[in-house]
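Protocol step 4 of 6.
Sequence for Histidine utilization repressor (Massilia forsythiae) entered exactly as in the expression construct, tag removed. Do not edit the line below.
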Amino acid sequence: MAPPTPESSLNGQIAQDSTPIFQRIKDYLVGEIAAGRWKEGDLVPSEQALGRQFGASRMTVNRAVRELTAQQVLTRRQGAGTYVAPQKYQATLVEIRNIADEARARGHAHASRPHLLERAVADEALAPRFGLVPGAPLFHSLIVHEEDGRPIQVEDRWVNPACAPGYLEQDFTRITPNEHLMAVAPLQGASYSIEALPAPRDIAAMLDISPGTCCLVLNRSTTSNGMVASVVTMWHPGHLYKFTGRVA
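Step 5 output, structure tokens:
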């Protein structure tokens, strides 16, 4: 390859110089994280050190760091410095997803902790969602899903026994409810909604967050063989999670 001409080198220099310094600092910090040189929880260089590296004023460096903090790329700990923020776990919204597969796809370990497995009955609010009469039998499970030891979802699920008669006999430390239901009650359709809600005290305790912390809450019902098979509410810490989707 021919060496760059003086003109091309000058054009490159002009292009670099036209980028504001604060943006170059942001690009550098994001690039180091994307390349894996800095990982979640790592301390990033101080504003003073970045100022020396880029020949920038403290105000300019502070702007770059503040903007990345607002974007949840970095997090500040008063008196301790600035760190790489916890990653946002990405979940697919359009498809019926298996949280264990998503964790493994990220190279992480999935674990689940059942808090409740019980026989219950449909109350006046649940019965219409299943097309059942109040008092009809249902199965109920409450499970906390973890990724690399961190709680990332509370799954509060109600199941129609007619669709999954062996639901309560499953070992949900080894198989997820989604995996079992997809095997015994083939998916016919689904409807869902998503909203941001403050975590109640019991959900907060299971997710290891403060009560009132904003959560992304996915409500979903699935049908199989002409019946509503499952109604589930899934709570995710808002600062750790995002949902994505694509329509072809």
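Step 6, annotate. The first strand starts at residue 74 and ends at 77.
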